[in-house]
Amino acid sequence: MSLDQIRDMANQGQAWPLVEGTGKQYGLWVITGVDETSSTLFRDGAAAKIEFSLTLEHVDDERTDLIGDLTRYGAAGRGLRMREQPQYRRPGYRITLAGEDITPRINGRLIDLRITSQRGQEADQLDLTLTDHDGKLALPATGDRRPATGDRRPATG
Fold first, then answer.
1. Percent of the chain surpassing pLDDT 90
2. C-alpha to C-alpha distance for 75 and 69, rounded to whole angstroms
3. Which of 4, 90, 98, 157 is 20 to 30 A from 63, alpha carbon to alpha carbon?
4. Are 53 and 78 in contact (CB under 8 A)?
5. The overall pTM is greater than 0.70
6. Which runs of E-coded beta strand occur in 24-109?
């Protein structure tokens, strides 16, 4: 579901079922506020990172007369089923560690990448946040220091 669709749902003032990804239902809620912050911008000013928060108000689960039209957003049945997903721009990057391109090994694990440029001859700083959702991420030994580089590539998508 897109942020534009969520804003549209909020503007309708109707109730919507809150359903966890596992299918667990939390009842009916009205979206009373949507706040967003765009950061980490592409060169053309488009946001590469958008953070948002929702303000929700619970309504009586028996008030089915307040439920919005879920079919408008490609949802049916007990949970939301998405239509074809729109293509969003993704930032491009390449990471090398001790001269080896490790980008293919961390694709799908990258949560955050930050490059901090230092003044003068000081070394720049590269911070990576990776997910180990499957327990298969090989971690370096504590104190292991190897040269790493990162560069930005044109956005894809």
1. 10
2. 9
3. 4
4. no
5. no
6. 25-41, 47-59, 90-97, 100-101
Per the listing, tokens 């980490």 go with 40
Cβ-contact 30, 47 below 8 angstroms: no
Q: What 3-state DSSP class applies to 19?
A: strand
- Per-residue DSSP letter, 142: T
CA separation for the pair 79, 61 (Å, rounded): 16
β-pair partners for 47: 41
pLDDT for residue 32 is more than 90: yes
For the chain, percent of residues with pLDDT exceeding 70: 77
Is the Cβ–Cβ distance between 50 and 34 less than 8 Å? no
Distance CA 153, CA 115 (A): 13
Q: Under 8 Å CB-to-CB from 9, ≥6 apart: which residues?
A: 16, 31, 68, 73
Q: Which residues contact 90 (CB under 8 A, 6 or more apart)?
A: 155, 156, 157
Secondary structure class of 1 (helix, strand, coil): coil
